[in-house]
Predict the 3D structure of the following.
Amino acid sequence: MSVYPQGPPDSQEPPDILESPQGARGPRLGVDEWVARRAGRREYLPSWLGGVQRALERIGWWPRLAVAGLIGVVLPSLGLGGFQLQVGIDALVIALLAVGLNIVVGWAGLLDLGYIAFFGFGAYAFALLSSGQIGSAGIHLPAYASLPAVVIAAAFLGLGVGLPSRRLIGDYLAIVTLFFGEAFVEFTNNVDSTKLGGPNGITTIDPIRAFGAQLTTNAGYYYLLVIVLVVIMAVLRRLETSRTGRAWRAVREDPLAAASMTIPVNRVKLMAFAGGAMVAALAGTIYAAQQASVFPTDFDTPILILVYAGLILGGAGSIAGAAAGALVVMVIYDGLLRNPTYAGYLFYGLILLTLLARLRPWRRLAGVLAATVALGFAAHAIAAAISNSAVAAGSQSGWLAHHWVIVPASPQTAGNWGFVVLICTLIALVQVGSRWRTVLLVPTLYLASFVWETRLIAEPSITRQLMIGAILIVMMNARPQGLLGQRRVEVAL
Amino acid sequence: MRLFFGELVTGVTTGALYSLIALGFSMVYGVLKLLNFAHGDLYMVGAYIGFFVIQWFGGAAHVSIPVPLLLVIMFVLAAGLVGGLGVAIERFAYRPLRDAPRIAPLITAIGISFLLENAALLLFGAQFRIYNTAEFISLSSGIRVGSVSIDSVQIMVVVLGVALMIGLRLLVNRTRLGKQMRAVAADREAAEMLGINVNFTIAATFFLGSALAGVAGVMAGLLFNQVTNTIGFIAGLKAFTAAVVGGIGSIPGAMLGGLLIGLAEAFVTGYISSTYSNLIVFGLLIAVMLTRPSGLLGQAQLQKV
């Protein structure tokens, strides 16, 4: 007979968890009991969406991955044009990078800001091994020799760059890796321009070539990238649940505790760096072969921030999240925002969605929308009555600008001031109380569409960069676990 | 010898500039333990403000007010506006993340930096804005020491830089606000329990740090003449280097680090090659970080469990 009829006195877990089916079956092998009990406590979306989420989760990871891969393979046969295919290739390369970055940032929790240099290293190494840059005849290795060589070399480079992580933590590591990334760009720009090409890059790279066959079409590279991405994701998924994967997460949560659990912290960190570097270098080789050219600017900070935006949007720590986030970011960044019509749909659609999600009850939402529309027509009518040049440029663009948004004849200055005022009203919107917020929302919405029509739509390349910055800030503040990530169980200390 | 002293003057001047940026960066790190990647971009905004002040008063060739007054307006306006921008960034991007995992504010800071850089591109375009300093400050009115001439802008930058650093040191060591800052830097929770308004102190730190970056931006405009939206990134990197080499969180360390980086850059450019100057500065940083992670004047922190 037990001394404690209800179990030992220090076990005070709520009874509903014990009665849950997971608790009854007991934890799976290799999963800590505490984690297993809390695993049932994750957040689901409200209402029927949560049901769908749960049903999806019951499907194993590999059928989901297989379906995603199949969709990827089928997509081009739906009649994608050359431009769409190029967007797809770029998106897949960034997705591959994001999945690799997830190892370092998402699992091991090491902020690696020099990650893009491994991508560049892979691309440059492949370029040197498959072009006429070195020696009189050049080196033209077949892919089955050059790819493994580049990837293994990248692993060693990753170990080297990871060495500071033995001594430096957090922010210091971030700076050192950032300098490594910058040093790579400086290096390729300035050192030995006969071989590395300097700012002009290397422009005569062989396609991927093996056993007498060559991969020359964009469609070929698209399929190759889909296959590589799916395989890498499957491998990483196996890695995630392995001993090493758990060690990475343990080191991320608390290096000291991990060390006292006999996890070799330094070695585990180095493995994360090397793993990330290998995936990035692989992406680099395919990128270089597909583009047939490499330039130092291809591996600069903006691309790094793009990869981070994808990873953060999808959710750091989740493989599917990293890949999906990067694909979404790239399709918007590279595809939609280049076309003013699609960009407009995206902009107004996002505003509507945000309002739908955040503005309750629906009467308030309807009121705000109606007031915004009315304000627009009124403002347009008044401006047109005062001076024709105030609405002059609107007549050339779409219907919306013609009747609703004021687009003056010289939109640049007005749009710039509108942008500054918009930032100020957005700040004010956060500051004021909820009643005034509803009132202030109407002019803010109108001002947003004014800035969009006058300025942002004319500068798609800047607009998309602004979007990337906004994604990073908004996601970190609103939903740090990303769209697909899970909120972690927080341990109160 | 002439080259040596010429590079010495250049090194001390740019060193003073880097020190000013590094100071703000280091102060923010001190109170929040946050690497503010957007700090370099605040410096860029300051440089633009200086440029538009010159334009406002008739352009470089026909300045409509006395030049000293113009300089005062440039510096004060840049300090005030950039300081306000820094406070706004802290309030809206960093404050909600104060108790989040360390990686979250860092990524936010990268986002802010990217956003500021591109907002400047949208508002001011990609072309270089030229200060034309020589048209309203006569550069030949400096001092000549032997064969080396030091122009008046360089003198002003160094004098103003040193004055600001002394002022900051007095503020941090002697005033009530400085005491609060040091308390918050030492232990935020304990400071809060002792009745210190932590939010105000952090906002004040951001204001001071960002204002210094704004002043440094105007100085850079006067010294280098050219302003564009990407100058913040490299200057920010150099300032990080300065702050880290000197020991992050330490004010004398930031000054020393800035001076060292400025001198190293000047001598590498003068004696070796200008193409490698950035590479060598980066290499210097990595070497210091690996051998002395807490910097030259910083103190190694004990890890509390």
Strands of chain A lie at 130-131, 139-140, 208-210, 213-215. The two ends of chain A are 35 Å apart (CA to CA). Residues 15-58 of chain A form one domain.
